[in-house]
Amino acid sequence: MTELTTTTADGLHITVRMPDAHPWVRESLEKACAAEARRQMESTPAPDPAYAVPRAAELLGLHPETVRDYMRLPDNHPRRLHYVPGESSRGDRVLLSQLHDWQRRNRTDAAPIEPAAATRRRRAARPT
Question: Which residue intervals are annotated with compositional bias (Basic residues) in the record (predicted)?
Answer without folding.
Answer: 119-128
